[in-house]
Amino acid sequence: MLDFLGTNCPHIRFINFNELEFSDTEAKHYTLGEKGFVPKDRYSYAVKGSAEMTFKLMQYCRKKQFPFSVYFCTSKLKDAVQLRERLKRRAKNVALPFDEITKDGVLIRGVLTGSNVGGNILSLRASLLKLLNLQEHELVYDPQKNRLLMDKKLVKKHKKMVKQLGLTPSIVAEYPTWDAMEVEIDFL
């Protein structure tokens, strides 16, 4: 492929090689060696030998004097820089008006949960809107996690009343991802 690109595609200015790595869901399957891949060490999802192969490909490109530059992006760089930038962009797109966004792209929000209220959390929302004199957009139902989201200042201000209704108030730091993985939970 490099030979084809180097001789037939003069408009290409650079090629970026990414270090091959496992995703979280693939890691257990592949670490058994079923596909011939193993992690390069116990702290990384990068595939053993991927970086070395990339260096060989880069040397090949240099030897052939292709008209494009070649870059190598390690899994460590992707984790440190690219993932952080991706989270920051996503946070800006999915943040609710009351959410805080940290410099790392983590959302800080007030959360109300209620294990002993079951499916009634949605009906409690209607009561809370009236009791706390809130607008619809100030108290948002999250069906994926069956919880209510609101400004962290409001959660702190109304924590006693919320607890009397059987809800657990907290301030949550979470990733702006589909699963909203919690980084930190501060129960009030």
Structure description:
The chain is built from 7 helices and 8 strands; from the N terminus they run αβααβαββαββααββ. With 188 residues, it is α+β, with helices and mostly antiparallel strands. The mean pLDDT is 86. The protein has 2 domains: 72 residues, no CATH class; 100 residues, no CATH class. Strand 5 and strand 6 form a beta hairpin.
Residue share in helix = 25-40%
Strand residue percentage: 15-25%
Tally of distinct domains: 2
Q: Could you name the ranges where pLDDT drops below 50 across 5 or more consecutive residues?
A: none
What's the story with the biggest beta sheet?
Answer: 6 strands, antiparallel
Through-space gap between termini:
58 Å
Structural class: alpha+beta
Tell me the Rg in angstroms: 24 Å
Query: What is the average of the pLDDT values?
Result: 86
**N to C succession of SSEs:** HEHHEHEEHEEHHEE
Q: What characteristic shape results from the CA principal axes? A: elongated
| E-strand count | 8
User: Helix count?
Assistant: 7
Keywords:
alpha+beta, 188 residues, 2 domains, six-stranded antiparallel beta sheet, elongated
Provide the fold topology.
Layout: H1 2-8, E1 14-18, H2 24-31, H3 50-64, E2 69-73, H4 75-94, E3 100-101, E4 107-113, H5 121-131, E5 140-142, E6 147-150, H6 152-157, H7 159-164, E7 168-174, E8 182-187
Parallel strand pairs: 1-2
Antiparallel strand pairs: 3-4, 4-6, 4-7, 5-6, 7-8
